[in-house]
Design goal:
Layout: E1 4-12, E2 16-21, E3 24-29, H1 32-37, E4 44-54, E5 57-63, H2 66-76, H3 83-92, H4 95-103
Antiparallel strand pairs: 1-2, 1-4, 2-3, 4-5
Helix pairs in contact: 2-3
C-alpha cells in the first residue's frame, strides 16, 4: 500500500496533482484543503496518500496531513459514501466543521 509520496510537484489543479518521484509521475485526486497547502509547481513536496483498490479501479488520493487522511478513511467507512464523495465533502468544509457535524449527527451539512 502506498502511504506517502515525496517528489517534485509536476502539475497541480484544485482537484488533482501529479508528483514526479524519480521520473515516475503519480496522479492523485486531492481536496481543496490539500490544494491550498501545496507549494508551487516544480518544488519538492510530500503528500500523504490513500490507495483505493477495487476490482475495476485503482486510484490514489492525496492529503495535506494525517488528520485529513483519517477523516477521509472515516468518511469512506460510512455506507453510501465512496472516495469521490468523501473528497467532495472534504473540499466543502473545514476539518473542524466536518468533525462537529459528524459528532452532532448533522448529516444535512454534508
Amino acid at each position: 500500500m502506498i502511504k506517502s509520496l515525496t517528489g517534485i510537484l509536476a502539475q497541480k489543479s484544485p482537484t488533482s496533482v501529479v508528483i514526479d518521484v524519480n521520473g515516475v509521475g503519480y496522479g492523485l485526486a486531492i481536496s481543496l484543503f490539500a490544494y491550498d497547502q501545496l507549494p508551487a509547481e516544480g518544488e519538492s513536496t510530500q503528500i500523504l496518500t490513500y490507495q483505493y483498490v477495487r476490482e475495476d479501479r485503482l486510484e490514489l488520493f492525496g492529503f495535506a496531513d494525517a488528520r485529513e487522511r483519517e477523516m477521509f478513511e472515516h468518511l469512506i467507512s460510512i455506507s453510501g459514501i465512496g472516495p469521490n464523495s468523501a473528497q467532495i465533502i472534504l473540499s466543502g468544509m473545514s476539518l473542524d466543521d466536518l468533525q462537529t457535524a459528524i459528532v452532532n449527527e448533522r448529516a444535512g451539512e454534508l
